[in-house]
Each structure stands twice: as structure tokens, then as C-alpha cells.
Design brief:
- The protein is α/β, with parallel strands linked by helices.
- The chain has two domains: 2-48 and 64-128, Alpha-Beta Complex (Hypothetical Protein Ta0175, Chain: A, domain 2), CATH 3.90.1070; 129-160 and 173-204, no CATH class.
- Helices cover 17% and strands 15% of the residues.
- It has three helices and eight strands; from the N terminus they run ββαββββββαα.
- It has helices spanning 14-30, 144-155, 187-191, and strands spanning 2-4, 7-10, 40-44, 71-75, 83-87, 92-96, 106-107, 120-121.
- The strands form two sheets. A four-stranded mixed β-sheet has the order 2-1-4-3, covered by helices on one side.
- A hairpin with a 4-residue loop joins strand 5 and strand 6 (92-96).
- The radius of gyration is 22 Å and the shape is elongated.
- Pfam families: RNA_pol_Rpa2_4 (PF06883), RNA_pol_Rpb2_6 (PF00562).
- GO terms for molecular function: DNA binding; DNA-directed RNA polymerase activity; ribonucleoside binding.
- Residues 9-47 form the DNA-directed RNA polymerase I subunit RPA2 domain.
Length: 204
């Protein structure tokens, strides 16, 4: 199936799907007047086998019900989450959406590129991280569970609980009266202007 903004508009033979997707991406990156630069081109290929576990020789006859319905899904609506990556074929920046990412091969580093398989590369290796996780300095020196723990603690931080404090009528609200900027910061800290609404103090 081919769907545009959730509405089925036609059918596309599986043999032509990858070529159509590649052409749509090239036109989008080139700035074609009829193709939005923020178009999401999500191609979900049909499963290679109809039986779960068949690839490793352990098929039990169970259909792959955990796979999304195969098809070409195009999204043009406003308010979608998109992010930039490098399109290797054209060496230009392309904006991609969340539905197409699981079915794309995106390299973090040039050494991760597999010829004929990898189609995109992260503009920076840390772009794969969320906002909170990208604020942890020297995260590559921590154990992975510690980084995840810090992300959860960061979500609970209430140094600046509201942006209109002088105009609120709450009976009780806690906030940090003497917040501080972190002594050690990541590049993302400044890019996202985190010091405008600081969340805590430096531990001494």
C-alpha cells in the first residue's frame, strides 16, 4: 500500500519500492517544488519470511504479528518530529522522521558505513542521544546503566518548575533560589540554552 498522511492512495509493486523511495529522497533533497523538504518517506518492507524464527531454522509456524503492516508511508503534516542526518549519496542534509528510522541504516561514524547498505550518517555521533542524555559530560566514561539512571533523575529535576513564576497563584511551589551553571558542560548545554532555566547547583 501507499499512504499519504494516513490515507491509502494506491499500490506499489514490491520490486519497485526501493527505487521509488530512493527517487523520492533525491527529489526531496534537491528541493523539488512538489516535494516538501520535510517529507517523511517511511518504507516498511514485507518480512523476508512469513514464519517467525525461520531465518535461524527455528520456525514454529507462528505469523510475524509484531511487524508493522508493509507499505510506503508518506507524511507531510505539520507538527511532526524530524531531525537532520547526512544523505551519503548526495552528501547533503536530509530531514527524517521517527517512523522511517527503524528501517534505515544510519552510521554514527564513517567507519560504521557498510558499502551498499548504509544510506545515511549522523551529522555528529552524539545526535543519536536524547536532550537529557546529551547533557551528561563524559558519558562515555560511565557505565551504561549509570547514564540511564542520570536521565531519569534529570527528568525529575525541579530547579525551575515554571516559566511564569511571578504570575502564578500557587499556595506552595519549590524552586532553587541560587541555581548555578554546571562547571563542566557539553556542547548541547549551550545549544539548548539550558542556563536560561537552570536545574540545580554544583556538588562540592
Amino acid at each position: 500500500d501507499v499512504c499519504v498522511d494516513g490515507i491509502p492512495v494506491g499500490f506499489l509493486p514490491t520490486a519497485l519500492a526501493k527505487g521509488v523511495v530512493a527517487t523520492l529522497r533525491r527529489l526531496k533533497i534537491a528541493g523539488h517544488e512538489r516535494i516538501p523538504v520535510d517529507l517523511e518517506v517511511a518504507y516498511i518492507p514485507p518480512p523476508s519470511t512469513g514464519v517467525a524464527g525461520e531465518e535461524d531454522g527455528k520456525g514454529d509456524g507462528t505469523p510475524q504479528s509484531n511487524m508493522p503492516f508493509p507499505g510506503l508511508y508518506l507524511f507531510t503534516q505539520m507538527g511532526r518530529m524530524i531531525r537532520p542526518v547526512l544523505h551519503l549519496e548526495t552528501q547533503k542534509v536530509e530531514y527524517i522522521g521517527p517512523m522511517e528510522q527503524p528501517f534505515m541504516n544510519i552510521a554514527c561514524l564513517p567507519s560504521d558505513i557498510q558499502e551498499g547498505i548504509t544510506t545515511h550518517q549522523e551529522l555528529e555521533p552524539t545526535n543519536m542521544l536524547s536532550l537529557l542524555s546529551s547533557l551528561t559530560p563524559f558519558s562515555d566514561y560511565n557505565q551504561s546503566p549509570r547514564n540511564m539512571y542520570q536521565c531519569q533523575m534529570g527528568k525529575q529535576t525541579m530547579g525551575t518548575p515554571a516559566h511564569a513564576l511571578p504570575h502564578r497563584a500557587d499556595n506552595k511551589m519549590y524552586r532553587v533560589y541560587n541555581p548555578q551553571a554546571p562547571v563542566v558542560q557539553t556542547a548541547r548545554h549551550g545549544e539548548f540554552q539550558m542556563d536560561e532555566y537552570p536545574n540545580g547547583c554544583n556538588a562540592v
